[in-house]
Amino acid sequence: MRGSERAGLRAEAHHLDPTVHLGKEGMTPALIASLEDALRTRELVKVKLGKQEDVKPKDVANALALATGAAVVQVIGRTTTLYRENPDLRRKSGDLPPWRK
User: Fold this and answer.
1) Going by C-beta distance under 8 Å and a sequence separation of 6 or more, which residues neighbour residue 32?
2) For residue 2, which phi and psi values (nearest 5 degrees)?
3) pTM of this structure
4) Dihedral of the CA atoms 24, 12, 10, 68 (nearest 10)?
5) Angle between the 29-42 and 57-68 helix axes, to the nearest 10 degrees?
6) How many angstroms separate the first and last alpha carbons of the chain?
7) The pLDDT of residue 31
8) pLDDT tops 80 at residue 90
9) 27: how many CB neighbours lie within 10 A of its CB?
């Protein structure tokens, strides 16, 4: 992903609320399934990370991206933004991106 694409996605993600919350249980199969579903339908997803003191947020973001095939757009504090394009989404010219709907 190029820097200009990442910057555009960061701007789009600014107004999004976290869709997936990673709690004290960590990266469970249920969490990965929930994140997969969110990425499939929205493409751009914010994830709120729990307060695991022994893990750095960037490491968790990279692990989530690796597990879902997504790209890390940004990590700010304990919130990360992930992006994965879904070529199966039907798009018409002039439609809003799926994360704005």
Assistant:
1) 64, 67, 68
2) -75, 160
3) 0.87
4) 50
5) 70
6) 24
7) 92
8) no
9) 14
One-letter amino acid at 65 equals: A
d(CA 76, CA 10): 11
Beta bridge partner(s), residue 49: 22
Q: Which amino acid is at 96?
A: L
More confident residue, 97 or 88: 88
The beta strand positions in 1-101, using DSSP E, are: 20-22, 44-49, 71-76, 79-83
Mean pLDDT of 24-32: 89
For residue 72, list its beta bridge partners.
82
Residue 56 CB-density burial (10 A; 0-12 exposed, 13-18 middle, 19+ buried): exposed
Which domains does the chain show, CATH number per domain?
3-85 (3.30.110.60)
